[in-house]
Amino acid sequence: MQSTVAIHRLDSGRGLSATHNRSPARHASGTLEFGWASDRSLLHLVAAYPSLSRPIRWLQACRDLARAGCSLALGPIDGSTWNNYRAVTESSDAPPFFLEPQHPASLTEYFLENGFSSELNYFSALDQQLAGMDPLAQRVAAEMNSLGITLRPFRLDDFSGELLRLHALATDCFRSHDLFSELHAQDFLRLYQPLRPAICPELILIAERDAVPLGFAFAVPDLFERQRTGAARTVILKTLGVLPDRATAGLGYHLLSEMRRQASAIGFQRMILALMRDTLYFSRRQFQLGTPFRRYGLFARKLSP
Predict the structure, then answer these.
(1) In this structure, are residues 42 and 4 in contact, taking their beta carbons and an 8 Å threshold?
(2) Which of 9, 90, 101, 187 is the most buried (most CB within 10 A)?
(3) Is residue 112 domain-shared with residue 172, that is, in the same domain?
(4) Position with higher pLDDT, 303 vs 21
(5) 210 lies in a domain?
(6) Per-residue confidence (pLDDT) for residue 27, from 0 to 100
């Protein structure tokens, strides 16, 4: 029997979106709000920041979720994993980077104090050797070429059309991932259109074979670094996705290697590989991904009826 999941959302000011709000009801305290999701019967919990320091609100929220039929609470998630989620659990003194989730420093402590434990873990790593030679990358590139796979940059003159193609591709790439939920194409456009001024076409690579998309890498300059220092010398690899096809094994590495090469050619000195799932696969390859400097968690608590 599949568990019903409760997602803890942090921004009560905006409320739940239409696609995730079938029958909202205001909690008696006035600070908590619930809404049934239409896609996977998820129950979203909305909490204002001031309420986070009051354990009674957390405990009452969990009781209400359990009575509503939920068996697991997860957080923090801003509605879905298409938006901001995760909380920082460990960090160096590196400053925040562009598009990194920003939450109160005490958020992790609040989750742990209220019976939550880390369910999924993530990290961000810094690669400072973009210009280095990589013989493996050359071999993989030759293999991809033999398969008829080419890489092309984002077409800025067809901005909306390219976003729609990326939406369809990302949906297929991540459909089997934890906590995946459908996002309407128009909502995807609204989410990414504000990034247009930050987009460098050479930093969005789309892998194709016979004009059919197979994978992509999406990176942007670190605008926060530009604000601090006057120049963005760091590029942020925000998303990398490939279709689940064994015939194109190695495509993810090819996209990553080509992104490193492109970023170096443009003049970037460093790359942040942002918010990657901390799995055994990546743990074995951190020497290829740079040095982890921040870790994040998604917290869970089992709910009893």
Answers:
(1) yes
(2) 9
(3) no
(4) 303
(5) yes
(6) 25
